[in-house]
Amino acid sequence: MIDLYYAPTANGWRAALALEQTGLAFRRHKLDLAKGDQKTPEFTALNPLQSTPVIRDEDGPGGRPLVLTQSVAILLYAAEKAGKLIPADALARARTLEWLLFAASDVAMTSGTLFQLTLVKPAPGPECAAHFERRLARFFAACDTRLAGRDYLADELTVADLALYPNAAARRAIIDKHGPMPHLTRWLERMAARPAVARAMAE
Ligand SMILES: N[C@@H](CCC(=O)N[C@@H](CS)C(=O)NCC(=O)O)C(=O)O
Q1: Is the domain of 55 the same as that of 71?
Q2: Are residues 47 and 118 in the same domain?
Q3: In terms of domains, do 17 and 103 share one?
Q4: Mutate which of 52, 71, 109, 159 for ligand 1 pocket (most atoms within 8 A of beta carbon)
Q5: Which residue in 19, 106, 125, 203 has a CA-CA distance of 20 to 30 Å to 160?
Q6: Are residues 26 and 68 part of one domain?
Q7: Ligand 1: distance of its center to the CA of 20 in Å?
Q8: What are the tens digits of pLDDT across the range 51-109?
Q9: Domain end point (choices 32, 50, 82)
Q10: Is 97 found in the same domain as 60?
């Protein structure tokens, strides 16, 4: 059994998506970041960085317990443990990793920076946030182009789609404003219709 400690944010949902979509048995423990649940001594012992998500797998590698942080490390761990979501074919695997890292670095970082600049520490003028919004829209446009004529980023459902989905779903307003991005929009709908995705994003 895997314990997932998460908050309802893109990073937390990425880990929940990984566990739901791979079908591994897990329990959710939802943290309230505004209340400071991530700063308790119990949680700090799990992750000294005091950030979510974290998993604890009592049946980790070698049969020993494993505590793991970083949403993408959790996504890859779950995929490898279940033997799903990472294609065996070398070309498909290379494309999967390419789009996984695009989602986890370019998209997630730009979306996170925009969150900080608009909600946490608003920048003095509007230019800074507008710059990151345009940058994020450009990244989503690249996803839209990639999804023309294919259902998923690497053709079949992979870790790359699960990495991108929480940020893209949370930024639907930016996608619509800078669109049309019909292929990305249809992919969002296709992902949302998957029962595992709906379960992961429900709380
Ligand atoms: N790179 C990390 C980022 C983790 C992170 O920043 N988590 C945020 C929620 S999205 C958090 O728990 N922050 C705690 C806080 O704000 O005190 C990952 O992908 O897991």
Answers
A1: yes
A2: no
A3: no
A4: 52
A5: 203
A6: yes
A7: 20
A8: 999 999 999 999 999 999 999 999 999 999 999 999 999 999 999 999 999 999 999 99
A9: 82
A10: no
- Give, using CA atoms, the residue closest to atom 13 of ligand 1: 51
Does the structure show a pLDDT above 90 at 165?
yes
- Mind listing the pLDDT tens digit for each residue in 109-138? 999 999 999 999 988 888 999 999 999 999
- Determine the structural domain holding residue 121 and report its residue range: 90-201
How many distinct structural domains can be found in the chain? 2
DSSP 29-85: EE--TTTTGGGSHHHHHH-TT--S-EEEETT-GGGS-EEEESHHHHHHHHHHHHT-S
Locate 128 and state its tokens.
């800074």
Domain finish residue from 49, 82, 115: 82
Q: Both tokens of residue 138?
A: 């450009």
Within 8 A by CB and 6+ apart from 25, the residues are 1, 2
| Structure token digits, residue 116 | 């900080």
In this prediction the pTM is 0.94
